[in-house]
Specification:
Blueprint (H helix, E strand, L loop, with lengths): L2 E4 L3 H12 L4 E6 L5 H8 L6 H4 L13 E2 L3 E10 L13 E10 L2 E6 L5 H5 L9 H34 L9 H18 L5 H10 L11 H55 L4 H6 L3 H25 L11 H7 L10
Parallel strand pairs: 1-2, 2-6
Antiparallel strand pairs: 3-4, 4-5, 5-6
């Protein structure tokens, strides 16, 4: 089974030397804040021209410049979503984006990240004993891709809760700030993941030039590319669901504006009618009782009739309002017909 090392302290360096001397493949996880380029180069034999891509974290460096390949190694960057213990303030999401740089060589696979955490502990990749070295690399990257799927699942669960709330008139209304926050998270996720769709095809081509790894028969990187394609499609599907919620929110706002306008329309008509100085009207409405009955009473009756019509024509129908034959049709049974 592939040995896992963390950090570049004295004991780990000695272990790295022994593993490389014995030609045993290993996985080493390193935090950029706990090491330097000089230490990485000395311990792992990384060439100087590779550090530009290996240490180029952040959005300032384009994704295309974070890919480096030689006959001995391949370096690329991937953004996963992990629970690293550093959450945004008041964020409803458990996972956060983490940029991980991966170096694949003949002797080892290196994962490098900026923050201090244990990537093997967070990923826990499935790598059973007896599998090939390329399968170990595949298991690590597959776990990184799965983290992005987990983050998307968090968003989808939240969308489901908001969709359920939008169908309940007694629940709180959907806030546009919440929908904008979800839209922003989906946009950032797609912006990070979409450029990586063609990444694994390029990596697979580069690694196939290394005859010692035998990646011709095991198309692991092709599978990873297909997973990233499915991830982007799932993000687009979640964005479509969010757009539906936004439409429902706008329709709800339009509905209540229509309700208010409908209530005040007859009131405006009645007040305008009684505001005209007809001689008969002025002569007949000469007592307080006539004023309350004709003036306020007619307004109350009009409002009650409108509210009754609004409730009966509500855009949301609860299960208790659905007739019995509709429940039977949902379960696949047809309504009984009267026999002649």
């Amino acid at each position: 089974m592939t040995e896992i090392l963390e950090g570049l302290d004295g004991a780990e360096r000695q272990r790295i030397e022994a593993l490389r001397r014995d030609r045993r493949y290993f996985w080493i996880d390193v935090s950029l804040r706990a090491t330097s380029a000089e230490e990485l180069g000395e311990a792992l034999g990384i060439p100087e021209d590779a550090f530009y891509a290996l240490l180029g974290f952040g959005d300032e460096l384009p994704s295309s410049r974070k890919l480096f390949a030689t006959e001995q190694l391949v370096i690329f960057a991937f953004t996963s979503y992990l629970e690293s213990g550093q959450h945004e303030d008041r964020s409803p999401y458990r996972l956060r984006p983490v940029e991980v740089h991966v170096l694949v060589s003949r002797d080892y696979v290196l994962t490098l990240h900026e923050d201090r955490f244990s990537l093997p502990a967070l990923l826990a990749p499935y790598a059973p004993e007896g599998r090939s070295e390329q399968y170990v690399v595949y298991a690590i990257i597959d776990a990184l891709v799965s983290g992005a799927f987990d983050a998307l699942n968090e968003i989808e669960v939240r969308l489901d809760d908001l969709a359920a709330m939008s169908t309940n008139l007694r629940a709180g209304r959907l806030r546009m700030a919440t929908l904008r926050s979800i839209s922003s998270r989906l946009s950032r996720m797609r912006r990070r993941v979409a450029p990586q769709r063609g990444l694994f095809e390029r990596i697979g081509v580069e690694l196939r030039h290394d005859d010692g790894r035998g990646l011709e028969d095991e198309r692991y990187f092709d599978r990873l590319g297909e997973q990233v394609d499915r991830l982007v499609d799932a993000i687009d599907a979640a964005a479509d669901a969010l757009a539906t919620l936004i439409d429902l929110r706008l329709n709800e706002t339009t509905y209540w504006l229509t309700v208010v306008a409908t209530i005040f329309l007859p009131l405006t008509f009645i007040t305008g009618f009684f505001g005209m100085n007809f001689g008969w009207m002025v002569d007949q409405i000469d007592t307080q009782l006539a004023f309350w009955l004709l003036g306020i009473g007619s307004l109350a009756v009009g409002v009650a009739l409108i509210l009754r019509l609004i409730v009966r024509g509500s855009p949301v129908q609860t299960d208790g309002d659905i007739p019995e034959w509709a429940h039977r049709s949902r379960s696949g049974a047809r309504p009984a017909r009267n026999s002649r």
